[in-house]
From TrEMBL:
PANTHER family: LARGE RIBOSOMAL RNA SUBUNIT ACCUMULATION PROTEIN YCED. GO terms for cellular component: cytosol. Plays a role in synthesis, processing and/or stability of 23S rRNA. This is Large ribosomal RNA subunit accumulation protein YceD. The keyword Aminoacyl-tRNA synthetase does not apply. One of its GO terms (biological process) is ribosome biogenesis. Residues 175-205 are annotated as: Disordered. It comes from the Bacteria.
Amino acid sequence: MSQPTQPAASAAAPDLRETDLFAFCRKGGSAAGDLAVRDLPRILAETAADAPASARDEVFHYTLTGFAHDEAAEPGAPATQRLYVDVTVTGQVWLDCQRCLGVYAEPIATDMRFEVVATEEAAEEASMEDDEVDVIVGSKKFSMLELMEDEVLLALPTAPKHVVCPTVHESLVTGADGEVEPEAPPEEEKRPSPFAALAGLKTKH
Ligand SMILES: [Zn+2]
């Protein structure tokens, strides 16, 4: 068996559970890789009970890109360094379709930019200044894993559905000539209703 070729692990690759997010952004760090669904308990909790066994072995692909931006609040004022991280996560989550109740794979593709600040107060201030950018409070042991799991959870539809359900409702079945068939075929009418059958049973006793 040939060894899979893997890029040499960079010394700068962050530990996704404990990243120094400030340093990552300041030095313009970047990382990419796979997240195993089995390491994401909250995604597992959302996964349909009837999902294929392989659902646990699936992965999300992620990219992280940190950068810093010097910004002067006012002309002539000393520049403030603002830190940002771009996060993308792609993959799929197995969900129950609300229309046909079958399981299906919902594609996930998130692409977010976060401003990284040091304190809750700074976060409030930053989101008041610019409500376009989502703000997170960074730390020296920041869990990028949890942030990415959050992003996948937020990307899940509130009403999960197949784009097109595999089983077509019988009222939509069309005849060979393309015309819609009558709702109840004539043969159906000859069958006794379940209530009539019940009534028959009762009189026999
Ligand atoms: Zn469906």
